[in-house]
Every structure is written in C-alpha cells, then in structure tokens.
Amino acid sequence: MTALTLLPFFPLFSFLVLIVLSKRLSWHIATAVALTGIGLSFIASIVVIQSLNVSASSGEGLTQSLWTWFMLGEHEVRFAFYVDQLTAVMIAVVSGVGFLIHGFAAAYMRDDENYSRFMAYMNLFICAMLLLVLAENLVLLYLGWEGVGLCSFLLIGFWYKDPDNAIAARKAFIVTRIGDTLLALGLFYLFMETNTLNIQEILAQQQTSPLSDEAAWWIALLLLGGAVGKSAQLPLHTWLPDAMAGPTPVSALIHAATMVTAGVYLIARMQGVYLLAPEILNLVAWVGCLTLLIAGIAALAQEDIKRVLAYSTMSQIGYMMLGLGAGANVAAVTHLMTHAFFKALLFLGAGAIILAVHHQQNIFKMGGLLKRMPLISILFLIGIAALIAFPGTSGFVSKEAIIAELWQSKTAGPVFWWLAVVGAFITSVYSFRLVFITFFGPYRAEHELLPQRHGLIVLPLVILALLALGGGYIPTHLEQVFSAPVASQHGPAWLHTVAIIAPLLGIGVAYLLYFPKTESSPAVPGTSSVYRFSHNGLGFDSTYNALVVKPFVWLANINRKDVIDLLVQLISWNTFTWHSAMKAAQSGRLRWYAATLGLGTALLLLGVIL
Amino acid sequence: MIDIAITHVFLISALLFCVGFIGVLARRNTLFMLMSLEVMLNAVGLAFVGAGSLWQQADGQIMFILILTLAAAEVAIGLALLIRMQHQRHNVDVDGLSKLRG
Prior knowledge:
Chain B: One of its GO terms (biological process) is ATP synthesis coupled electron transport. The complex is a heterodimer. Chain A is mainly alpha-helical.
C-alpha cells in the first residue's frame, strides 16, 4: 500500500522544504508547497479508506510495516501503520479539515513576515497528528503525541514577540506535559503487564487472558490522565483558553478540529482496556460531564470571540468523553468528526470577522455584522446551529446520539442524561449570546470594516458549512470497530423530546437576555462578582496559581543557588583553602625557609629520640 | 696532654652549632649569614674530630678535611653571589631577595 506508506510523509516533506527555504519562498510558492503536502495526504487518505472498505468488510484493519524502529528486549517495536474504521475517520478529518484550514490560513497569514515558517509548522503538525492516529503501536503513537504537543507550543507562541503569547505557549506546553507524563507511566505499566505495546496485540490479549482488575484500573486511569491533558478536560483544561493567543487558523486547526481530539482517540482506541475497568469508564463520564458544564458556564461570561469558542470546544470534547464513558463509542467518534467540521467553520468564520474588524476580538466592540458582512455571518450561523445541535445539522445527529445512550448506560445513567441536557441548554444560551451581541444591534467598532474578497477566505468556509450541515450522514462503519452499544431497550419516550427542546429553549432564553431591544441600546459586559468569577474560568487558574505555581516558584527561588551543589562545592573549597595556605609558605624569604628547615629537623630528631 | 671529657666536646659543638644557626636566622646581612654558616660547619667538624678521638679512628679527621673543602667551595660561591648582589642592588640585605620566589 504505497498510499498508506506515504500518507504522513507528504506533509513532512513539505515541512522540510518550507523550513529550509523559509523566507526565500514567495507567498505563491510557499502556499503551493504547503497545500500540495496536505492535499496529497488527503488524496492518500481517500485511497486508503476506499481499499479498506473493499478489502475489510469483516472489520479487520490494514497493517503496513515500514521498518523495525528498535528492539525492546525480546520485543520488536516497528515503525508501522494500522488502519481500521476508527483510524479512517481520523485521517480523513485531519487531512481533509486540515487542508481547508491551510487554504484559509494562506489568505489569513498572507502579510505575515514569517509566513513560510507558519505554514511549515502547520504541515509538521498535520504530519505528527497523522502519525499519532496511524500508529500501530503505542510507542509510535507517543511520538505523534509529543509531536503535536511541540507544534502546538510553536504555533501558540508564533507571535513570540509579545510576551503574553510566549507565556500562553509555555503554559500549554507545561500543562499538557503533566498529562504526557501520566501517559508515559501508563505505557510503562502496560508493557510490564502485557509485554507488548502493539495496540492490536494488547486488545487481542484482553479476549484470551485479560489484565488483572488492579492493573486494568491503574492503566486506564493513567491513560485517562494523558487524555485529559491533551484534550483539555478537567482538571488539566486551563491551557486551552489561553492557547487562543495563537493566530486564528491555529486555533481552528489545533484547538478545535484535531489535536484536542487526540485524547478522545486514545480512549476510543484503548476501549478494550477500559471495558475491564468500569469504575474508570464511570470516571471518564464524570470528567466529561463536569467539563462540559464548567466550560459552558465559563463561556457565558467571555468577551473575546475566540475564548467563547475555546470554552465551547472544551465543552464539546466533554460530550465526547461522556459518550466514551457511557459506552456510546460510535456516537462519540461521530461527534468528534462533526465537531471538527463545525468548530473549524466557527473558528475560520471568527478569523474572517477578526480580519474584517481590524484584529479586534472583543464581541462588545463588534455588533450589527449580519447586515455588513452577510455571507460570513450566515456561514457562522450555520456553524452555531450545528454547535447547539439544531435539528437537521450534523451536530444534532451526533450529539443527540450521545445523549440518547446515556439514560440506559451501565457506566452512566439518568443523572448524566440530565446534566448533558442542561449542558446542551447552556451551549445554546452562550452560542446565541455570541450571535446576538456580534451580529445584531448597532455597529460598535471604531473603524469601518475591511472588505474581504479573497476566495481562499470564503471557499473553505462554504465547504465546511456544507459539511457542518450534512457531515453527520457520512457513512463511517464505526460499528465494525466497537462492540455493540450497551443500551438494548430505550428509555421513556419523552427523553428525545426533552433533549431536542432544551437547545431551542436556550435560544429563547438568550433572546430574552441578550437580544438588543432597540437599535441604539449599547451592549455591555456584566459587572457582578458572579460574572467576573465565571469570566475568569471559575477560578481554576487562580487556584492552580496559589496551590502549584506559587509554591513551585518559591522553591525554585530558594534553590536558585542549588543547595545540592553546595556539597560538591565543598571539595573545591577544600582544595582552594589548602592551596592558599601552602602558597603563603612560599614567601621567598631565605631566613624563613632556614627557620622552617631547622624546626623540621628538630621535630624529626625529637621523634627519633622519643 | 689533658684528657677532655667527650661530653664537653659535644656540648661545645652543639653550642657552636646553635650560635651559628641563630646567626643565620637573625642576621639580614648576607655576609654575616655566610660567616654564621662557617661557624655551623666548624661545629660539625669539631663533633667529628671528637668522635674520631673517642673511638681512636682516623675517619673523624678525614671527614673534617672533607668539610673544610666543602666550606671553601661554599664560601667561594657565596662570596661571588655576594659581590654580584652588591653590584646590582647596592646592598646585601637578604630579605630584599624575596621577590625571587617562584
């Protein structure tokens, strides 16, 4: 399978070209190189998926081994790819949505002096993400995992001349590093227990000789630790809102469409292990549930358009986690796919708006955009409709599927169902708060709108809007990968009705609260303490600052002179002291030497006599 | 010939040696240091001669002649250095030479 072999290496090659030639490339050539790399990957993905559908109707995946990476004792770690229906969804989303975002980014970043470097990082990111999802073993997966972490750091801090951006980049890197460490520990434990890191071998082993309860419990917990770091779930979610410091296409690519779903992918991939530890599955559901509520409440009080979307990303990934925890795997992964479509659409739409209003991101300084830029506004509204699961959109298909399975699930239950429905309600309140403040009412910006006529801005948005509407109906055959859903009989009949009505109710509430009553009334951000608390992300940042960051900085300050090093310095101090003592004896005074000689002789004689 | 007790000989010898040594330490004038060194050498020579007469051996006197030769050679070199020192520095203060240290 040449297509499968080359799939992740197209973007790697274009990355190398871009980073080596860098500023010597004109905008046209750099764009062509970057888009070709991703485009070829997308074509290769389609080819791979076609042959997967032809050859593997039984649910078996395709394996492509490239070379032996290294030996781990007796065990061989191969550089090999594995494709099944789950991977197929991931590679199609990563390369497809990635391609569209690259197209948009080409127009968005056109005037940036480091344009080639930007596109190079984006390509490297796609390469790392493809390695992550294609990996046949967990070591290769970890390579991709770290690779996307690195690219995320580079891209968030792309405008590194502003110290705030560099701080946000460092924060993202350090917080996800905590999760990565847990993941590495999980892999060590897994290797110790199963003696292999090949994903399919591990999953097959669970059928014949499953892990002990305790081992499965710990491994599942440690892998979950990695997933919450990368997917910005409670309690490691604080990096995502700050990551909006990066250029908007980066937010679209990394922090919405692809990278943050890596954790969801990991849990879905290792489902066989999680099934052995139902308590951890329950914990996954709780993590997702709490995250989606907390992120939704925080999103209600944001003033930066990108931060609203960032919190909504966290909340949507919370839904995916909740789905995985409840055993609704197919629905969760479908939501991953549809979320990639509509969230990329929303971020790119936000990017187009931000460009038009002179890089202003505060929604209270926009307003009335529906009349002024109707095309972008309508595309953005389509994204919002999918986000709140408006009937008929792709978000409706996937999110309702998740919610529908919660009631009967063994690892979730009615409590989770109610919380998820409340979450859906909050989602539509904050979404339409954003819509009403941004698109309706008077125009509040200080400058006139910049005209947008570049085809590369509009075309990706149109394609993504079509996907956001109909993407839920793309056939995925995910049921071949996952065991059948747990729920056999359905819950009460009113469940569906309530789940569908909740978001619509949210629109109504948002209309009452936020819709500009008269054409001239100014929209103002809230000032109450509850609003401020929610605006600051429910105090997680300040809590972590007080509990972790401050003590750590304090310790680091104490240790500035390196306490341990003092022991080592004792040796050199010893040598120096004796050296200076000896040096003092070498005075050059002849009579002093003679006296020392006499004294020494006298002492020797005394020793002999006594 | 009056017999002199060997103890007295060694006492005189030790006394002379100490006088010479203190002279070396106390004097800053290089000429006096050289003279004190001669006193010390002669003290040792006296001890050798005394020991030779005690054991009725000629070795003591042979050693004394060796010491005389050595002293002559030492004084030759010492005085030569002294003259160069007087030429270059216009004094013979030994402490002034401490800047020669390595």
